[in-house]
Amino acid sequence: MPNRKRMTRWSSYELLRSIEMRGKVGTWVWDVPTGAVEWSPGLYRIFGVDPATPASLELYQRLLHPDDRLDLDTTTMIRDSGTIFDRELRIIRPDGTMRWLRGYGDVLVDGDGEVRQAAGVVFDITTERAMTDALKRTSLRNASLSARLGGVIWVADPAGIVTDLHGWSELTGQGLADVQRNGWLDVVHPEDLVATRQTWLGALEQRTGFTMRYRIRCQDGAYRRFEATATPVLNRDGQMVELVGICLPVPETGGKEAGGRETASAATAEQGLTPGQLRAARAALGWSIADLAAASGVSVSTIRRMETGHPDRQVNVGFTETIRGIFRREGVVVALANGRVTVSFDAGR
Prior knowledge:
434 Repressor (Amino-terminal Domain), 3 domains
């Protein structure tokens, strides 16, 4: 049976004590005329000080980080401001460890306006501060890497909400708010849009990574080709917690038709998936063209054009990446090694 106290109602003291026992919070009271200071048990725990040690303003000042100490020797500042502090500060515990705290303090004055008491509450925010600092460092690291590579680095949550983005605004003019709800697809070339959307949504649904190429409308209005690679970040349970990606410019090559289209042979070769490898990968799965069309969402006629590789038959390069993603999902690996494209089964599947 749980330990239950017999009482008709919670007193303010019992409620505060219960909160302190379960949270990183403490309170204090300072009787200004006498200089007497009281710390709650929770504050002693935060400070890392033996509860048998008498609380004092001098001890508090010694615990404060040198850069965070306040001038509390006079009550003039307290009386004029009406508060002692409302800020973040650091303490150095007796064992040498540093803790980040958030403190709030107020004062009580008498009828003559003289300060009689000051009281406050202190929260230990060390864990939260460490997480915030880590996120800032990660964001700065991604920004530096994006600038160095001349591309885009982004992070999205499992629902596809972009939480960190570097280089995209400089490239397209879209800000973080503009790319939400798949808004980034607005700057993808119309001919690449369907395949790009399918690959993106498929990665979110399947919790998998991808590599695909598509054209992006840049700030100058011109479309340029980029290669995007993303990988899922998984927790210990194998659940995706975020999707991290990088988007880099692709050097312009031959094999283009008027208007920026690529021939079927150029598109598949550029992506490391020639007509022969496409047919071999499909055969390795025992799939017909209709089976591949059903799995990828790419039409039967488009797959036929890709497999013939006729230079007069144009195809969206994004469809190639969609099919590559389907092959990866089924354990068929199309890889480029020593200038040769190979098709094999993933032994780990």
